[in-house]
Amino acid sequence: MHIPMRRAHETPAPVPDEVDLSGINLNLMVALDALLQEAHVTRAAARVGLTQSAMSHALAQLRELLGDALLIRGRGGMVLTPRAQQLAAPLRRGLAELKRALKHEPPFEPATASRRFTVATRDYFGTVLLPGALELLGREAPGVDLSVLHVDSHTYPGLLERGEVDLTVVTPPVEAAPGLRQKKLLTEDFVCVVRKDHPTVRRTLDLDTYLKLSHILISPRGDGVGAVDTLLAKRGLPPRRIALRVPYFLIAPLAVSRSDYVLTAPRRLIAAFGEAYALQVFPPPIPVPTFDIIQVWHERFDGDPAHQWLRGLVARAVNVGSENTRSSRRVRRAPAS
């Protein structure tokens, strides 16, 4: 396949500051998107249902229109010029918005809707919010399905923008990315827990006892220290012994119930498992700062009725089990033994 190229001595035609959209064939923009995604004329042609010769002709037109080669031959195949790299992301966003604007969608009716939403979060937030969300779904939208994915702080902005994920539930700060919107769902605090038949901890948990115990640290990355360690260092107190690091929130309560370790963890997590795992709950002997949980979405879906309903559902799910959480604030002391 031969793609016509400008000779090195030829100067690209200047591109006017203001582009007259009325003179541009929209099909060229679809072809350009495919070319920039595939960096290969034949694959781009197959992607949009054109012949190879038709895509080659479209590429020639695009080069003339934009005053840039767009794709040039490299050692491993075709490569994008800097101008093409600059165009790729905004062009994809623009075409996605155009598709959404042209698509006819009936009003969203939760009671009769049949669709799937994808929420990216961590296991703790799923534990806190998912039971309430499922209860609301059963009552209001029995035909709506949920997919819950593990959130990756580096990739979720792009997933939200492309609509591959509808909503993320995370802790601040939000990744710096254009178009992201956020709203606080709740403020969480911490409690300390040990198993009910712990050999050392009885009715109270003071700081001296707390520091002598072996600790469990929930660390998604498996390294570093927690908020408690930072507080101890600021106060000039001896460091605690972290005997076990776990990457998931849900492992930690079970580990406490089968050991003599102590865990400092979010209150709502312990409220979900305290009774099942026979745990004693205490206020932290050192004040630990609270943290916020927020939901994040892309501004593309601000006005979409289905997404508005989903965000409202998640916000209301926080309160479905709030009575259990309020009850857990009345810390019950184990009888002296």
Structure description:
- With 337 residues, this protein is of the alpha/beta class.
- 40% of the residues lie in helices and 20% in strands.
- It contains 12 helices and 12 strands.
- The chain has helices at 26-38, 41-48, 52-66, 82-102, 123-140, 156-162, 207-212, 227-234, 251-257, 267-273, 305-320, 322-329, and strands at residues 71-74, 77-80, 115-121, 144-150, 167-170, 180-188, 190-195, 214-218, 241-246, 262-266, 279-282, 291-298.
- Strands 4-3-5-12-6 form a 5-stranded mixed beta sheet.
- Strand 3 (115-121), helix 5 and strand 4 form a beta-alpha-beta unit.
- The longest helix has 21 residues, at 82-102.
- The radius of gyration is 28 Å and the shape is elongated.
- Mean pLDDT is 86; it is low at 1-10 and 327-337.
Summarize the SSE layout with pairings:
Elements: H1 26-38, H2 41-48, H3 52-66, E1 71-74, E2 77-80, H4 82-102, E3 115-121, H5 123-140, E4 144-150, H6 156-162, E5 167-170, E6 180-188, E7 190-195, H7 207-212, E8 214-218, H8 227-234, E9 241-246, H9 251-257, E10 262-266, H10 267-273, E11 279-282, E12 291-298, H11 305-320, H12 322-329
Parallel strand pairs: 3-4, 3-5, 8-9, 8-10
Antiparallel strand pairs: 1-2, 5-12, 6-12, 7-10, 7-11
